[in-house]
Amino acid sequence: MASPRTSTGNLTGSARVLNDMVVTFHNTVQNWKSCFVDGIKIIQNIQESRENEDVVERNCERMGKLVETMQDHITSLKECSRKIYNLYLLNKSSSSPCYTWSYEKLAQAVQFITNAYAEDTVFKEKITQSLQKRSLQQIDIIAVFWVHSGHINSRIDASLEAVLKECMLK
Prior knowledge:
This protein is mainly α. It contains 5 helices and no strands. It has helices at residues 13-48, 53-90, 103-132, 139-147, 154-166.
């Protein structure tokens, strides 16, 4: 998915801050998703190299670093979510720059998305720990869990799309 386009016109004040935060939020989600895809590739490398312990070990180390990067992205998402919520607190009585949503609804949607990605990252960290303590027969099961963890679903994707549309970024 391409980065959201910026709104036309000169935004100032809270509208500018909100626009910037939502763009940063979206880009961070995309970076997290890129890590997710990289994790699939690493697991495939492990599956293809089951007999080569050195290759498996190197890939397990890569997975550990990848999950650390995903955790960094979660920290960024939480920071964006906190800033958007603070913007809501500062602008409770003013009109929202969104199409139809209030600042509060936007803050709730961003928090909902952030929580899902955070939960999924915790799950992926546990999967990575299992991978490092693996038996080679379990790698296929671990691969399935990496891809199908259940926290990130079409509802989360639709919420992110709605945030972008409400902020006139899509």
